[in-house]
Specification:
It comes from Saprolegnia parasitica (strain CBS 223.65). InterPro entries: PH-like_dom_sf, PH_domain, PI-Interact_SigTrans_Reg. This is PH domain-containing protein. There is one protein chain. By secondary structure, this protein is α+β, with helices and mostly antiparallel strands. The chain has one domain: Pleckstrin-homology domain (PH domain)/Phosphotyrosine-binding domain (PTB) (PH-domain like). The chain contains two helices and seven strands. It has a seven-stranded antiparallel sheet with strand order 4-3-2-1-7-6-5, with helices on one face. The longest helix has 23 residues. It is globular, with a radius of gyration of 16 Å. The two termini are about 30 Å apart.
Length: about 160
Amino acid sequence: MSSYLKEGVLTKRSASAKLITNWRKRYFALTPTELLYFEKKDDAEPGRRTPLGPDASVSRTNDRGYKLCFVVKSTSTAEPFYIQAASEDELNEWVDAIGKVVGKIEDLAKDGGATEPEAAKVDEVGKEDVVDAETEGGGEVDAPTASGDATDGTPSMNEGSE
């Protein structure tokens, strides 16, 4: 069993997409202090680390009409991080899990505690507070159909590496 609070496949919006929005499937993992994504589950190094300090926020968004989307913002990173879930349940689970991590870090900061990774241990956040995507609600994101639209009616996602 991994030390991640939550993990699973989600679809992220490409940060380099300015004119054309590209969405790519990635393996995401939530730690007590960061949201990570990997191109593949078995990759040793994440493609991106998003710190979840007291300045971070997570919220649902319907940005550009994309369904089942949420955004993670942090002053530690230049760009907001747009992520799409495969279902309403999965969306709610991720937003809740990230929100709990951010809330715990905010509580530590208010109490004068450190917000460094070593200060926010997995047991402090509480794995029981976060649903594990491998046991409930996780899984693969539907691939786009031949017409270019995802099977649930969301805008198309382009496959490939970033």
